[in-house]
Amino acid sequence: MMELSRRQFLKLSGATAATLAVVELGFDPKKAQAESNEFKIAHSEVTPTICPYCSVGCGILVHVKDGDVVYTEGDPDHPINRGTLCPKGNGIRQLYTSEKRVERPKYRAPGSTEWEEVDWDWALGRIAENVKKTRDESFVVEEDGMTVNHTEAIANLGGAALENEEVYMIQKLMRGLGLTYIEHQARI
Amino acid sequence: MKHTDCALIIGGNPAANHPISMRHLQKARDERGAKLLSVDPRYTHTSSKSDLYAQLRSGTDIAFMGGLINYAIENGLYHEEYVKHYTNASFLVTDDYAFDEGIFSGYDEGDRSYDNSQWVFQTDDEGNILKDESLSDPRCVFQLLKKHFSRYDIDTVISITGTSKEDFIEVAETFCGTADPNKTGTIMYAMGTTQHTKGSQNVRSYAIIQLLLGNVGRPGGGVNAMRGECNVQGSTDFALLFHLMPGYLSAPNASENHRNLEAYKAAETPSGGYWENTPNFLVSLLKAYYGDKATSENDFGYDYFPKGRRNYSHISLFEAMFDGEIKGMFTWGQNPVVGGPNSRKEKKAMENLDWFVSIDLWETETAAFWTEQSGADPTNIDTEVFMLPACGPYEKEGTVSNSGRWMQYRYQAIEPKNDARSDAWIVHNLANRIKKLYEGENNPVAEPIQALSWDFGQGDYPEIDLIAREINGYDLKTGRTVESFAVLKDDGSTSCGNWIYSGFYPDAGPGEEKNLSKRRDDEDTGMDNYLNWSYAWPLNRRVLYNRASADPQGNPWASDKEAIWWDASQSSWVGHDVPDFGADVDPNSEGGTDAFIMRGYGKASLYSADGMTDGPFPEHYEPYESPISDNPFSKVDLNPAVKIWDGKMNDRGSVSEYPIVATNYRLTEHWQSGSMTRNQEWVSELMPYMFIEMSEELAEEKGISERDKVVVESARGSIEAYAMVTKRFKPFKVKGKKVHQIGMPWHYGYQGIATGEIANVLTPHIGDANTMIPEYKAFLCDVRRANS
Ligand code: SF4
Question: With an 8 Å Cβ cutoff, is B354 touching chain A?
């Protein structure tokens, strides 16, 4: 099975990071590792971050040079991981370099078979109008003599990968609008 | 974890899913000879690193733990002094409480719910709880517990868990050995525990055994949830859940109890325990929400808060959407078409939306729910869909909270890629635009959103520092941030966005920066607490309820398990951690042994009088879809308090048609619904295909070979994937019958580089009685070779 041979390969080749560099660069592993260390990190700016995946909360250093993420590595000072990382944490450079990232806001009209690119101003304006329309049509101020001030016609899902400051803002806006359907990954 | 003598890992696979946590367990093994016990349906990566593996059929945790509880009591392997002083073992329960044939008193069959007023404690005329310190009264919690679990004898237990007797006894002996005050044991669990119709009671059963063994609040102890996402802790603390407000205050509902602020305070404020401060926390939260519009005249804007009238959890949400009740939806980095239970139904439900906004780094299966590639007919779907590119974690700044409640700062390393924006920017600009649309309107619908204060700077980007201050809270007179939640008031003079975080940004005037989550001093301040690295809520406490780490007199139970202790010369609690207790409360004074300060009466609950919807004690019931029809513990097969969803596209499978138990799990290489990882080349190459893992025995019975294409079918639908035949699954012997179990990852979908069919097509809409967390981890299916 694919999985087994790959794992053995990882074991044989030592550090996962080295192997990942091979996959990426596709030539002599040792040389590739040495060169990538030497060339990519030299004079880069280093910023500490926390792994975006599981909640162990490992520290990672992000090396940036010429507007690109050139290298990431475990934060050697971090008390939880002391420089080590698992394969997911090791690969976070590709969160930036991936070609698959959505580049610009996109819109799909009712019944349409495709996306069209739109600008932020138009997209946010249109979304805000939709929110207002749905909210105004569905809002209940009072029910059975009690003030309830809610709308059950809009739902908000997510997200457990966002930052505390962001989730604070999201829940504040959504509750402020009167939403009751507010959920995220913790439930599922 | 490094200080543990025994780790029982159940319903989780940290070696694969939380790999770095294993470093710390390995240290415990190397340095203290700690034992690792792995209890799981499958011989996992974690099992391979453990001292002992015990097999457990999916959905039988309570039977297994009930067996341990019984074993501990029968053999006197419990920490008696701890149990007497720190738990409610001595409390007397009224005669109304009863348990008969799987049903607790107070049950309403029509409603499938309990009236918990029959589960209360006996009190004297002044409302004080009556106790029997000798623990011998038949109505005391300890005796009721003993009686309840006496039914969980080893033979009955293993007849349904499928565990071998030898393995069960070895786990019981080893783990219950931590009842010795010199030792501690920890339980580590994850979604294998919670994703069941009795998931909450599974966790309760872990808590009960840990309390009996005296393992809570001590170094190397605890009941530890290994959380799956970097900030699932924080996003729960901040109440992205329908039933909560930030800091675990109950969300107001449309009942007389919550009619107005006064009623809410009366209903939600217990007498005793830290929740006595509920009014201070709530009014400060209202001030954070509504600023100047929150005044004593208008109940501080309490009425502006939405009041719900029912359960709005994930399954309910998609059921309502399926029925056409929901018109618009936002998803922030969430992908229910892959991750939601009964995902085909959830995807279908989305076709009823007028508009849908997906905020993500990638075009997920959910964002593409309307495309032909997804199997839909776009010309028949009238939903307006918006795909907003979010930026990655190091393209913005802010904090995330890990499983240990450490709030850690993530800095921005680089500008957002392409035209991406942070979620903070998106919500900020959306809020400003929506508020603008309501400007000048004068009607009761507009009023609540007009009243919402949105004060995060004048720039295009919101100022993270201002948000941090609002969360921490500040004094409205001086403008300085508060030092802790202890100074929050209910008179409108303080504002605080989330009281439990109060203190991470202490005593700072405007313009003065003091964000403790940025701290990076990696020196061990004792017992691996690293008190100067980042910040842990509440008040930088690293181990909750750490008063229990010391004996009733205030001395550590064991010299190498010190956390905090009473220093009589200073009349103060001192030690390696911040006391989770009144710092100057003498152990010999009143309340001096009330170690569980959040509980109304200061004691941990062996018996839960009011915390659970489905009984004061855990009881074994079978999963919604079970391979057996005769539960040996009672005549009741399914948790009697779960809600059954009998709508369309959610059929229940029976064992005659679907004889195989199935579960899903995660892989090291992928993450959640896979959108983050399946869009990256490296990890996609490491784990490129969807597969179905099965035992050699099952493969042989079905004529399946490794890498064959197989079809797995449940009552909800079917999927195709490659067979992976392993020794990690073994058939179970359940009540003398052979039962097979298979497993599969749930990471795959039709978008991205590594694609595969969606496992959750198979899972049902059914959830836990308390939390409505779906039962992903035990459902029935059948499997066959494709085209045969
Ligand atoms: S590096 Fe691995 S173990 Fe550490 S936080 Fe990230 S996903 Fe979890």
Answer: yes
Q: Does A121 contact B at CB distance below 8 Å?
A: no
B736 burial type by CB count under 10 A (0-12 exposed, 13-18 middle, 19+ buried): exposed
Q: How confident is the model at residue A41 (pLDDT cuts 50, 70, 90)?
A: low
Q: What is the DSSP string of B713-733?
A: E-SS-EEEEEEEEESS---EE
Separation CA B393–CA A176 (nearest Å):
26
A37: three-class secondary structure by DSSP? helix
Q: List alpha helices for B659-709, DSSP H.
A: 681-686, 696-702
Residue B408 contacts A, CB cutoff 8 Å: yes
Ligand 1 pocket check for A51: Cβ under 6 Å: yes
Which range is least confidently modeled, A139-143, A184-188, B608-612?
A184-188
Q: How far apart are CA B683 and CA A35, in angstroms?
A: 22
Domain map (residue ranges) of chain A: 43-101, 139-187
Question: What spacing in Å lies between the alpha carbon of A51 and ligand 1's midpoint?
Answer: 6
User: Are the beta carbons of A124 and B429 separated by less than 8 Å?
Assistant: yes
**What are the extents of the domains in chain B?**
6-225, 322-437, 546-595, 660-785
The ipTM of this complex is 0.93
| Burial class of residue B144 (count of CB atoms within 10 Å of its CB; 0-12, 13-18, 19+) | buried
Following CA atoms B83, B89, B91, B95 in sequence, which dihedral angle do they give, to the nearest 10 degrees? -170
- What is the fold, at CATH topology level, of the domain defined by A43-101? Phosphorylase Kinase; domain 1 (3.30.200)
**Crossing angle of helices A164-177 and B464-472, rounded to 10°:** 70
Q: Are A181 and B242 in contact (CB under 8 A)?
A: yes
For ligand 1, atom 4, which residue shows the shortest CA distance? A58
Which amino acid type is present at position B733?
A: K
Strands B718-726 and B691-695, bridge-based pairing: parallel
Closest CA to A116 of A126, A124, A105: A105
Q: Which H helix or E strand runs over A9?
A: helix A2-12
A6 neighbourhood in chain B, CB within 8 Å: 686
pTM of the full structure? 0.92
On whether the CB atoms of residues B777 and B763 are closer than 8 A, the answer is no
Q: What confidence category does residue B788 fall into, taking pLDDT thresholds of 50, 70 and 90?
A: low
Q: Could you give the C-alpha distances from B762 to B221, B712, B788, in angstroms and in order? A: 37, 8, 20
Q: What is the CATH number of domain B660-785?
A: 2.40.40.20
B16 CA to centre of ligand 1 in angstroms: 10
A-chain residue closest to B776, CA distance: A188
Q: Is B414's CB within 8 Å of A157's CB?
A: no
pLDDT tens digit sequence for B644-657? 998 899 999 999 99
Query: Where residue A23 falls among pLDDT bands split at 50, 70, 90?
Result: very low
Q: Check whether B675 has a pLDDT greater than 80.
A: no
CATH architecture for segment(s) B6-225: 3-Layer(aba) Sandwich (3.40)
A15-19, B143-147, B625-629, B698-702: least confident range: A15-19
CB contact under 8 A, A166 and B471: no
With beta carbons less than 8 A apart as the criterion, state whether B506 and B481 touch: yes
Atom 2 (ligand 1): residue with closest C-alpha? A86
